Amino acid sequence: MALSSRLFSKSKLIYGSQMLLQKDYAFPVRHYAKASDPPALKGDQMLKNIFVEVKKKFETAIGILKNEKITIDPEDPAAVAHYAKVMKTVREKASLLSESQDIRATIEMETQDIPDARTYLLTLKEIRIKRGLTDDLGAEAQMIDALDKVEKELKKPLLRNDKKGMDLLLAEFDKINKKLGFRREDLPKYEDELEIKLAKAQLEELKKDALEAMETQKKREEFKDEPESVDVKTLDIRNFL
């Protein structure tokens, strides 16, 4: 969790800096698409559409997983990388969000109507806490310190539609980025590292579940003649889908 927390801190600074600008003078495109909103649906039809969409995504995911051999070995970098690649394909084909995309979408959704920078930063902290992540880099404290400095210079609370003030704050954020040793253009690399970390964690969970299932099975009378133990790396999860 420590690595994913550090990557979240990096992502939060970058995503946060980008979306901090989206109040009033940099709205997301969909704010201008009101005329294209779909007609309102009745409750039953809405539920039916949701069910069909979820079913479609599920079938797409299962179809991909049935064609891929996944080795349950979280200690093997090659197995972890392959699993991460398969899950990326599942997300792309089934139109699912990656962890980094979900972070970005969550930040955008929960902050789009916030008028001031301080409430915005406090909301980022709430998002982190809800996800069970720690701020190992101390990014939050540094961002608040930067805001305090800017507001002291402005002699007023900083609003997100104050372009001059926001430019000052983002300049301070750039200093924090430099101090922490990462660059905005390296964001894809941080996202890939996060996906690898999550893939390893998921394989560890699969391994744990498989071992527990085998232990339970050994205690059942009908399986008493089965081999004492099976290496989970030899299991093919396609047989269980």
From TrEMBL:
InterPro entries registered for this protein in UniProt: MGP1
Coiled coil: 189-220
Key words, A-Z: Coiled coil
An example Gene Ontology biological process: pollen development
Keyword Coiled coil attached: yes
This protein's record includes keyword Transmembrane: no
Superkingdom in the source lineage: Eukaryota
Any Pfam family the entry gives: Mt_ATP_synt
PANTHER family: ATP SYNTHASE 24 KDA SUBUNIT, MITOCHONDRIAL-RELATED
Protein name: ATP synthase 24 kDa subunit, mitochondrial
